[in-house]
Specification:
The protein is α+β, with helices and mostly antiparallel strands and about 80 residues long. The protein is about 40% helix and about 25% strand. The protein is elongated. Its EC number is 5.3.2.-.
C-alpha cells in the first residue's frame, strides 16, 4: 500500500488564484498512481496520494522564506 505525499506551496498558477485547482490535484493523483503502477506494479486502488498545500511564509529555501528568496533571486537576475 504505497502512500505518496506531495507538498506544494499555496499559490495559484494563474492570476487571481491562490491554490492548486481541484483539476490539477486530480491530475497529480492520477499521474502519481499511474507511475507507481507502471514502475512498481502497484495497483492503483491501493495507492494513496496526499496533497499538502503550504503557505509561502511557511516554506523556506536558501535560509529565507520563499517570497524573500524569490525577491533576492529576481534582483540578482535583473
Amino acid at each position: 500500500m504505497p502512500i505518496v505525499t506531495i507538498q506544494v506551496t499555496r499559490e495559484g498558477n494563474t492570476p487571481g488564484t491562490n491554490a492548486v485547482t481541484a483539476d490539477e490535484k486530480a491530475q497529480l493523483i492520477k499521474g502519481v498512481s499511474e507511475l507507481l503502477r507502471d514502475v512498481l506494479n502497484k495497483p492503483m486502488e491501493s495507492t494513496f496520494v496526499v496533497i499538502q498545500e503550504v503557505e509561502l511564509e511557511n516554506w523556506g529555501w536558501g535560509g529565507l522564506p520563499v517570497p524573500e528568496y524569490r525577491r533576492q533571486k529576481q534582483a540578482k537576475e535583473s
